[in-house]
Amino acid sequence: DLPSPRNQRQNTASCTRGLLCWATRLALLAAMSRDLTTFNRKERDARNRDAIDKLCTDMGCSEPVARNFLKYQRFGIGPLADMQSERAKNEQRMQRARFEREAIQSNTASSAQTSRAQEAKRRLQEEKERLER
């Protein structure tokens, strides 16, 4: 229990400074009135989900790495520390454009391979039909 005002006056008289006792009392009140806090991973993940997903797609990194980037940004270090600068935005745009070009090239290359394979199958089928006649 906290001391009553009467006991507080007695304690203040025994203290070398009255401020120390009041500071102690305020600290006790703050400590007692603070609710228990529990760490909930699901709430944390839900709160940062959009930022994490955006980082994963923009920087091409995994989810734990994106979380670390956000943590480092709070400390003012790492690649996200100057994320708002124009230079960083330009680099991201260039990287995103390069990824899109590479994706398009890989899609066209795979479609070209598919069409070559289909062409080869068609030629084999025609040759097979011709031999059967």
Low-confidence stretches: none
Helix/strand-derived category reads mainly alpha
Output the helix-strand order.
Answer: HHHHH
Count of DSSP helices? 5
> Which bin fits the share of residues in helices?
over 70%
What is the rounded distance between the termini? 105 Å
Mean pLDDT: 76
What is the C-alpha radius of gyration, as a whole number of Å? 33 Å
The global form is elongated
Beta-strand portion reads: under 5%
Oligomer: single chain
Describe this structure in words.
The chain is mainly α and about 130 residues long. It has 5 helices and no strands. The protein has helices at about 5-15, 20-35, 40-60, 65-75, 85-130. It starts with a helix and ends with a helix. The model has no long low-confidence stretch (mean pLDDT about 75).
Question: What does this entry show, briefly?
Answer:
With 133 residues, the protein is mainly alpha-helical. It has helices at residues 5-14, 18-33, 41-59, 63-75, 86-132. 79% of the residues lie in helices and 0% in strands.
